Amino acid sequence: MSARRVLVVASHFPPAGGGGIQRTVALVRRLCEQGWDVRVLTRPADRQFLPEDGYFASRVPAGIEVRSARPWRWNLPLRLLGRAGLPSLEAAATRFFSVPDDHIGWIPPAAREGTALLRERAADAIYATAPKHAGHWVGRILARRFSLPLVLDFRDDFVGNPMVPIPTPLHRRLMLRLERRLLSGADRAVFNTPAMEEDYHARYPDLASRFTNVPNGFEPADLGEALAPVARRAGPCRILASGSIYGARDLAPILRALAEALRAGTIPADGVRLDLCGVHWTNDLPLPAALAGLVRIHGFVPRDHLLRLYRDADLLLSCEDPVRTTAVPGKIYEHLALGRRILFVGAPRGAVTDLLREAGVGETVHPADAEGLRRSLAAAACEVLRGTPPERAPLAFLERYRRAALSERLEGILLEAIRGRAPVSAGPPTPPPGASSAPTLPIPA
User: How many angstroms separate the Cα of 157 from the Cα of each of 132, 168, 197, 234, 340?
Assistant: First the structure.
C-alpha cells in the first residue's frame, strides 16, 4: 500500500518558535513515524512576533519538505499613518481591514505556493491549523481547488475569541458568515478543548456532526531536565511568568499585588524573585518601586533557556483575559507535568480552572481580586520558603495529555476524513481522552 500523503498548512512552524508550534510539530513527527508523506506550507519567521528557535527546528523530521510563502505587505500604506505620528489611527485601520485576521496578506501567495506543491505531487488530504485563521482559508482554497478532504484544527476560536477584537457589528456579521463557509467546506473540525467544541455546537448545530476535540498536551522529551527532581536551592521563592502578553492580558494587577504583599510584610523583603519571559514583554514595563531589583524581564527566550527557568521555578504563573473561558494555553499542560505550584490569573469559571480542579492542583484568582492575588502570592511564597512541597497532579491524569497519544488521535481524524467515513453524529462534545491503565510518564512521583 502506498504511503498516505498530507499537506499541512501552518503559519506558525519551525524555524519559528513561540506558542502554537508544539502541537503541529508533534503531529508531523507522528505522521512521519507512521510512514506518511508529509509536506508543510508555512511563512517565514517574523523577528518580532515569531522569533526563530533552534530546538523546535531540530524536532522536525529530517527530509520532509517545508515550503515557505512570503506574505504580501498589504498594510504598507497604513504604516504611513504611524510614520505621520498617528499610531492609533494606523492600528484602527489595520484592524478594520484585517479580515479574517492580520495575516490576510499571506492568503494569495500561500494559495499559489500550495497549488504548485500539489501539482508537483498530489496529496490525500489537507490539514490546516490556526491561528492565524488565514491559514484555514488557504487550506479551504486548496482543498476545494483539488477536491481533497480538509481537516481544520482550531487552537483558538475564530469569531468568539475575545483576545481578537472585532471592529464593528458589520465585521462580526461578515466573519460569522466566513466562519460558516469555512466549516461547511471542512470534513472535520478539531477544537482544542471540550468547551470550545461546545461553543461551536451551539453556534452551528447543523454542522456539529463534523466537530470533535483533541486537547493540547505536553511531551516529556520537550521538558528535558526540567522534569528531573532537584533539591530546592536556598533563597527566595522564584516565580516564573511565561507567554505572550497581548490584547486584554494584563500583568499590572499581579505586579501591584506582589508589591503590596512585600510592603505589608506578608512576603519577606528578600523572599521573592520574578522572571518574565515571552514574545511581547518589553523593558519599559512599569514596575512598582517595591519590585525594584526583584524582576528580570527576558523577552523571548529559546526553548533551552525556558527549560532552565522552568527547572529553577517554584511557582508557575500565567495570566489570561478573564472573559476568555474556552481556551487552555499549551503551557498549562507543561506546568501540570512539571509538578510546581501553579497560579492562574484569569476566569474563575472556565476551561483552565476546570482542568486544574480535575488535576487537584493549582489555584485560580480573578485579576480584579486584588486581595485574593495578594493572599495567594504570599501564601505560595511562604510555603516555598518553609520548604513545603507542592501538590502534584496524579500520573494517571497526566498520562491523558501526552502529546504522543493526542497526535495519534489527530492522525485518526485525518484517516477518517480520507476514508470518507460518516462523522460521529451530533451530540454532546467529545470528552477528553480517557486515562491509561498503566501510566508511563517519566515524571517524578
Answer: 10, 18, 9, 43, 29
* Percent of the chain scoring above 70 in pLDDT: 88
Which H or E element spans position 191? strand 188-191
User: Cell numbers at residue 186, please?
Assistant: 471542512
Task: Give the angle subtended at the CA of 169 by the CAs of 164 and 174, to the nearest 5°.
Answer: 80
Looking at the chain, which residues constitute the CATH 3.40.50.2000 domain(s)? 5-75+91-217+402-419, 220-395
Q: In sequence order, what are the residues at sequence separation of 6 or more whose Cβ sits closer than 8 angstroms to the Cβ of residue 208?
A: 200, 201, 426, 427
**What are the pLDDT digits (tens) for 65-79?**
999 999 888 776 767
Q: The whole model's pTM is what?
A: 0.88
For domain 220-395, the CATH superfamily is: Glycogen Phosphorylase B; (3.40.50.2000)
The C-alpha angle 261, 263, 265, rounded to 5 degrees, equals 70
Angle at 404 between CA 398 and CA 407, to 5 degrees: 115
Q: Tell me which CATH homologous superfamily contains domain 5-75+91-217+402-419.
A: Glycogen Phosphorylase B; (3.40.50.2000)
